[in-house]
Structures are given as structure tokens and as C-alpha cells.
Amino acid sequence: MPTASLRIVADGVGRRYGAVRALADASIALEPGEIHAIVGENGAGKSTLLALLAGARAPDSGTVSVGGVPLVPATPREALRRGVGLVRQHFSLFDALSVEDNAALGAELTRGFGVLDRPAVRTRLARLAERAGLDLGALGLPAGALAVGARQRLEIVRVLWRDARALLLDEPTAVLTHGEAAALYATLRSLAGEGRTVAVVTHKLDEVLAHADRVTVLRRGRVVGSWATGATSAEELTRAIMGDASLPTLLRLEPPSVAPARFTFSASEGGLDLKLEVRPGEIVGVAGVEGNGQRELVRAIAGLEGSSRATVVLDGVALSGGPAERRLAGLTVVHEDRQVDGLVLDATLGDNLVLGDLGRCDEAATIARRIRAFGIVPADPSVAVRSLSGGNQQKVVVARALDREVGAAVLAQPTRGVDLAAQRAVHAAIVEVARAGAAVVLVSADLGELRALAHRLVVLVRGKVAAELPIDVDDATLGRAMLGLEQVA
Asked: Which of 34, 78, 116, 294 has a C-alpha 20 to 30 A away from that of 317?
């Protein structure tokens, strides 16, 4: 269905957070009917720019116009009233409310005497959910029970529910598989085809070149270029993003020698029915369509939900107790949602970097080493970790997990939302802990990441191992296994 078009323009906008300059004299124009990608290194100002365009922040200088009229007041309510919807990188859902209540909250469909018309809500939501690829079976669940990918799709549905003519999305495919990402971009292309304006912040240049019409590069708070995607390349975009810096070379780790498993996990309840064995120095990649037990697997290993029905053995010792006890035994875990399970948002960067290590390290030296090793920006331990960009928050979580004595590492989406240089740094850290003898379980929606690092692949379908595959398996076989169409062992 055609929709009225909406052009959004930022003209010379700037924004500071205390002493940190997030944007300086940045300009961009988002055109109706286009998918416009915004790329850049972590801390380049991408999310800040998106927030200014959506009224979530006011610029310190310059102007934002929506439909040719300045966005005043610069508030999300005013932007949404004019048809601009923001899908944040970090979710704004109410976990205790159901999926349908989250979608309709603030824009409810009512009948006589203001009573919520639930049949009408469900009918409309079913149509929008199908469009966004949200599993219809999840509509009655509390939002807090959804995996990260489903929560992100629910955020998109919330924006569509409010008839937004412009959709601004921050890292929407960060934890989606290649197929899920392609389906999401098909949805965005359909929305753009209706005349909507679509902007996407992402680090995935292959997605940019495959799906976007235009791409703008930010570096250190400034726009360094804007191109039609057909007139540029991944190499040119990488040079624009990195400037004079170069990407470190990742040396693939040789397969470990035959040895007994150093780490074993088994479970037959709680949505899981599987056994994993990982040798010292081995990286086992876990692939699967999001929502097939990956989150439950990681949380059970960590000693959270479902752990009472699971067996975790490291170096011949069965691990019980909670996350703290398991960490002391040499098990380190990175969860898929850094803000829920990885960070204390109102604590400082320094405090977050040594959580779990207090009293067992030279705190100042450890903080400085982790900031330096992972290139965390700003490099000021006193800033609140909440103020960091999403990519830099992810670096904090990974630095804390891997910069220690590790017997086994379980890493879920470890490069979610980080830039190219940081991806290489994280990958190098994973390789180094494996080289030192750790058993590594890598859960990722990025098949390229799995192929680059893992020695073998395990495919999860409905909480079970549907396939164990070599790393050079062809895409067709891997795809069939992920869809549960065949058992391959």
C-alpha cells in the first residue's frame, strides 16, 4: 500500500556527551523509497546520528528537519507524531508484558468505554508480525522470554504498529543468521517500495552492498563520504572507515591434536537434549536459526536457568553452583545480550572491566591493560559504561571474559555490534585462549565468523544437535541442517 513520503535531513549537526564529542558538523539526507546504510568504526557517532534523526537526542549545533520542517521539539514523541520510528540497538520492551501488549502499548485499539479490543489487536498484530518475520506462536509470551532476535523483530513491529513512514534501525541484524537477515532486508525493501524512508546502522558491509541503495561513512564523529552502493566496494568502504589504520591479520589456529575432552556439557531437560565435548585448543562453532536452544545452552552452562538439569565438567571436575563459582573454576561466559547479562550500566567502565576479579588482581593495571588491548573508547575508566557505544560496551564484556586464565570459554555473539578492527581483535583473543589450551564453544549467527574460527560445526534444532559438520561444509547442506530438514553426523 503506498504511503506518504518523508524526507529527513541533518544539516551540520553536532553533539557532545560531557567531554566526549560524538558528532561534529555531520550532514546526511535520507530519501523516501531508499534503504540508506550508515557505517563506521565503534564510537564514530552512528547511533548518536540516528538518535538525532529520531528526536531521541537534541543536537548541540546544526538542525534536523523532517518533511522540510525543523524537528522541534526534538523528542521521540514529536518525531513519531511526524512519522519517524526508531528501532534501537538496545531494546525498550517491557519484559513482563506479553508480545501483543508491548506492540500495542500507547497506541491501543479500543471498543466501547475504552476497553482494549484484543481480537482487533491480535488480527492487526498477526498481519504486521508476519511481515516482520516474528513467530506468531510467540504473541502470548512475555517479551522477556524471547530470544534477542525475536525481541528485535518485536521492536520493528512496534514501529510499524504506529504507522511510521520512516524506519531508523540500529544494528538490526547483529544477531540474525544470514537467512534471517536476508528476510529482514526483504521486509525493509518492501517498506521502501511503499515509499517509506529506511536507514540502517550496521557493521556488515556485505549486507550494505547487497541490500542498501546508499551508504554514508562516519569516522570520529564526522561524515567522510556518501556513495550509491553500486558505485563503491567493500575495499573502498573499509578504507573510508579505517582511515590510515589497517586491519590486523588473523592467523587461523591449526586443529588441536587428538586428546580427551577438556570440557563436557550434557542436558536432557529444560528445552535441551544434547551433549557437547570440546578438546583443549579446540573451537567448536554452534550454528542454528535463532531460537533453537542457543540461549538456553549458554545460560545452562553459565549456571543460570536450567543448570540444575545439566552436567558441566571442566578438567574432570563437575561444576555446580552459580556463575561466580564456575568462573573461579576457569569457565568464562559471554552472553548474547550484553546489557542484560554482561554489564552494570550505571557503574563505571573501570568497575565493569574488573567485575568478578575484585581482590584477585591489580585493578588499575588490569583495567588499563584491557582498555588498551581491546581499544575501548573513550579510554577513561571513570565514565559510566552506559555512555559507551554499543560496540565499545561489547569490547568491555569480551575483554573481561578473555583477559584471564581460561579453561573453557563459552561465547555467544562475541562480536555483536563491533567494527571491523574490533572484530579482528576479538577473533585474535579467541584464537589466543584456544592456543593456550582452552576449550572454546562459539555460538554465532555469523556463519562467516564460525567458518573463520571454528574447527567443526554443531547445528542446533529445537535444542538438539541436528548435525555435526566439518568447517568446509557447503552452504546448501548447512542450510538444510539448520532448517532441520536432514540429520547429518
From this structure: 294
